[in-house]
Each structure stands twice: as C-alpha cells, then as structure tokens.
Amino acid sequence: MNSRPLVFIVSGPSGSGKSTLVQRLLQLPGTMLSVSATTRSARKTESDGKWYNFVSQSEFQQMVERGEFLEYAQVFGKNWYGTPRKWLDEAVAQQKDLVLEIDVQGALQVKQKLPDAIAIFVLAPSREDVERRIRGRGQDSEDEIRRRLERARQEMLTYGSYDYAVINDDLDRAGAEVQAIAIASRCRVAQREDRIREILKSFGG
Predict the structure, then answer these.
(1) How far is CA 140 from the centre of its chain?
(2) pLDDT at 1
(3) 99 DSSP 8-state letter
(4) What's the pLDDT tens digit per position in 116-147?
(5) What is the domain class of 7-34+96-202 according to CATH?
(6) What mean pLDDT comes out for the span 182-195?
(7) Which residues partner with 8 through β-bridges?
(8) Number of CB atoms found within 10 A of residue 18's CB
(9) Where exactly are the structural domains of the chain?
C-alpha cells in the first residue's frame, strides 16, 4: 500500500486521445477517477456521474464561491469545467491514486497547488491526426474545428510544464507507457519511505 495516494494529471490538446489513455490508466489496481463538473450539456452517449457531473451555470458558480474546486476554467469561451476538491479526500479515504483528466489550463493550476502531482501530456502524432479525430466525432462546425486546431497549437507550447509526454500514435504502446509511468511513480523512494522504514525496523534499526 502506498504511504499516500498519488495524483496523476492527464491532459493534452483536443483529439489527442487522452480519454482512451485514462481508461488504460484506470485499469491499474488502486486507481480512481476524479469526476469533473461541467456546465456543458451531456452528449447522447454520456451519463451523469460517470466522467462528468453536469450542472447548471448557477450551480457551478455556487461551487466556485464555496471554494469547492481544486481547479476550474472556461473552455472555448463557453462552458465551464472544474475538479471538485472532494475527490482528493475520497482518494485518501480509499487509499487509491487519483486520476484527473483535465484540460491544459486546469493542469497548470493543479501543478501550482500540488507540485508533487504527476503531469502527463498526451499528443497526437501530427496536426493531420488531430483534425481527423475531431472530424471523426461529427460534432463540430467548421468554425469550431478551426478553433480547436488553433487551441491545440497553443496548448502544445505548454509541454515544458509537464513531467512526461506520451505520443499517442499507437494505442497499445501509449497505453503501456502511461501505465509504466504510474507504476514507476509508485516505486519512488519518497513514496515508499514509510514501508522502507518498517523493513529497516525488522533489522533492528
């Protein structure tokens, strides 16, 4: 058992495939997902409470005023997204590592507040791949696609703020990489120090 739960931040530009890699990360025992709150409407394939809690603008604002968010941001000048602090408490209570799938703005906020959080930047292999993935969703207008591609370019410039980069050009390899990052992080000396001290005691000091 880890002495304290880790926080994994997974973010990257739209169309990078980060949601799929988060699912691979959650396949590891001892992990749990932080469910974000958002003011956007649920898509047909989405249900409340699985990946997102869908709330009204007024509900979101009340949560902000009560200081309930670890981070929050407005995306594309429209909808708001936030990470409720309660998931940190829940992770400690369950002794599980917490996985946050959040956008770049949110990732930078969390890194400032939780410097020990492990930030993973997910990239598609090219602009063409990002555009193909966005178009494949069939959800966005041409103007929206252009905005998403420009935002992706701007977000790419923040890669230096992350601890790891995973290029999602092969799903199996990229999935193995995010799992390897998590496993290696659990083996850091600082993370295992309590257990190491227990073993030292068995040797008499």
Answers:
(1) 23
(2) 46
(3) E
(4) 999 999 999 999 988 888 888 777 788 888 88
(5) alpha beta
(6) 91
(7) 99, 118
(8) 26
(9) 7-34+96-202
35 in Cβ contact with 50 (< 8 Å)? yes
The tokens 């410097």 sit on which residue? 115
For the chain, give the DSSP string.
--SS--EEEEE-STTS-HHHHHHHHHTSTTEEEPPEEESSPPPTT--BTTTEEE--HHHHHHHHHTT-EEEEEEETTTEEEEEETHHHHHHHHHT-EEEEE--HHHHHHHHHH-TTSEEEEEE-SSHHHHHHHHHHHT---HHHHHHHHHHHHHHHTTGGG-SEEEE-SSHHHHHHHHHHHHHHHHTSHHHHHHHHHHHHHHTT-
Alpha carbon distance 60, 38 (integer Å): 8
Nearby residues of 56 by Cβ (< 8 Å), 6 or more positions away: 39
State how far the Cα of 90 lies from the Cα of 119, in Å rounded to an integer.
20
pLDDT at 176 over 70: yes
pTM above 0.90, yes or no: no
CA-CA distance, 53 to 179, in Å (whole number)?
26
* CA–CA gap between residue 90 and residue 181 (Å, rounded): 22
Per-residue pLDDT reduced to its tens digit, 77-124: 788 999 999 999 999 999 999 999 998 888 999 999 999 999 999 999
Q: Which of 131, 110, 145 is nearest to 7 (CA)?
A: 110
